[in-house]
Amino acid sequence: MNSPLLDALLDSPALPELIYEAQKSLAQEQRLRRKFYEDITPENKWEFINGEVVLHSPALDRHLATSMRICELLRAYVRTRALGIVRHEKAMTSFPRNDYEPDVMYFGSTKAALIDPDTLRFPVPDLVVEVLSPSTEARDRGVKFRDYALHGVGEYWIVDAVEETVELHRLEGDAYPPAERQADGTLVSDVVPGFEIPVRAVFDESENLAVLRRILGEAG
Q1: Which CATH number, 3.20.20.70, 3.90.190.20, 3.90.1570.10, 3.30.70.1150, labels domain 59-219?
Q2: Where would I find the beta strands (DSSP E) of the chain?
Q3: What distance in Å separates the CA atoms of residue 56 and residue 39, rounded to the nearest whole number?
Q4: Distance from C-alpha of 202 to C-alpha of 65, rounded to nearest angstrom
Q5: Which phi and psi angles does 183 have, rounded to 5°?
Q6: pLDDT value at 199 more than 60
Q7: Domain with CATH 3.90.1570.10 in the chain
Q8: Is residue 36 within 8 Å of residue 99, measured between CB atoms?
Q9: Neighbours of 56 (CB within 10 A)
Q10: Tens digits of residue pLDDT in 131-176
């Protein structure tokens, strides 16, 4: 079944001209993307989004601490149960059009098998966590939100480290339905079997440590 956008395009008398312009623009974008791969360096956090090279500025400690707390809990759970791999920050995930470096990403066993020590461009993750910042929120809620859903990221966690809330978006078809902003309660993953953590463990150091000890204790 065609999308409304495609139906409108197919109905347009300007279809040949529009396709020509789209092909020309896409070819130029692909040339820029190849140059992007040649120019990137491991010292910085880079993304390629809709033909634009995005170089990220350093993050606030609040942002780093929040993403690290999630990563530590998820990584401990996944490692001790052999459920795949978890990566933090500068792992470049390649989508059909764009390249992103999410704050935290989880790859289940099938995709983890595609990753080796020399991997530079990672496959589409099964779960992505993005911690909002003023410079990234528009993309995190815009192009990334659509791209992650369209290409099968099973869960997308949007974390606000200032308001101390988490939105856990679960994929339905090729879209994410609206999700509640949780300031307390429990986050339950459908993508990582059995992974459940209190929301407060994302923001509170002592709560995070208590949950980490529980995860490791259960694994032992």
Answers
A1: 3.90.1570.10
A2: 46-49, 52-55, 84-88, 92-94, 99-100, 104-108, 121-122, 127-131, 155-160, 165-170, 181-182, 186-188, 196-198
A3: 15
A4: 9
A5: -105, -15
A6: yes
A7: 59-219
A8: yes
A9: 15
A10: 999 989 999 999 999 999 999 999 999 999 999 999 999 999 999 9
Amino acid at 163: E
Tell me the backbone φ, ψ of residue 84, rounded to 5 degrees.
135, -145
Which tokens belong to 54?
């995005």
Residues 182 and 44: their CA atoms lie apart, in Å, by 32
What is the average pLDDT value for the chain, to the nearest integer? 94
Q: Summarize pLDDT for 57-90 with one digit per residue, the tens.
A: 888 999 999 999 999 999 999 999 999 999 998 8
pLDDT at res. 1: 55
- Tell me the whole-structure pTM to 2 decimals: 0.91
Cα gap 122→114, rounded to integer Å: 8
Strands (E), 117-185: 121-122, 127-131, 155-160, 165-170, 181-182
